[in-house]
Amino acid sequence: MLEIKNLEKIGNGTIKDVYQHPLHANQIIKIIQPAIVASDGGFAKHGWLKRKLHQGIYRQFRRELIQYLQLCKTHYGSGCFTFPVETPYGLVATDHGLGLITEKITAPDGQGWTLEALARDTPLQPRHHQALARFFDDCVRLHIVFGEVNIAGIMYTESRSGRPEFVLVDGIGEKLLIPIRAMSARISGRYVRKVQRRILAQVAQLQAEHAKDS
Fold first, then answer.
1. Model-level pTM?
2. Are residues 89 and 177 in the same domain?
């Protein structure tokens, strides 16, 4: 079992903390923040009935793993195992609960740049816009199911495939009770385009604010 005190924390989201894997430089460990977890493994903010739902706090891990397995199954014939979503490598026990081990996405400077941070702090270049358009096109083409995808859950890299690209690291997988997006590529694609329009509007606003402050 890994002890969190021995790990390097490199980031966090609204419900997850992110740690550097102690043995593999290209991997991270995501852990649900203990402060928001009830003793029964559900989210503390939920009522007892909702906390009883299958997998509890680990439903997010389950959605991501199922999405990746589905992509690998669909593209079995091509031997493709890398998609515009982070690659999960497995689970590990820690003193703060299960951790999900995933691929570490880094920008050319070695840091983790989200689309939000990139648009807020730097003028986006044509390569960034092209990579972002390709990201959404690939998500539609490959039938990648979005859960709650936001501008902070998309990260930029140039080392993964040798070209500029964006990778989804949060909000992956079907969240609806009736999995209509997972069942229908057409419905899923429409939702991806809806998310794309929202995120592009946010990017444009951040870029305008950056230009104003420069």
1. 0.93
2. no
CATH of the domain at 214: 1.10.510
Q: Which residues of 55-81 are buried (b: 16+ CB within 10 A; e: fewer)?
A: ebbbebbebbbbbbebbeeeeeeeeee
Q: Are residues 70 and 133 in the same domain?
A: no
Is the CB of residue 148 less than 8 Å from the CB of residue 181?
A: no
Give me the sign of the Cα torsion angle 114, 120, 123, 124: positive
- Type of residue numbered 66: I
The model's pLDDT over 117-175, given as tens digits with 9 standing for 90+, comes to 999 999 999 999 999 999 999 999 999 999 999 999 999 999 999 999 999 999 999 98
Are 14 and 113 in a shared domain? no
Integer-rounded Cα radius of gyration of the chain: 18
Q: Which helix (H) or strand (E) holds 134?
A: helix 126-141
Domain that holds residue 130: 105-214
Of 80, 104, 128, the position where a domain reaches its end is 104
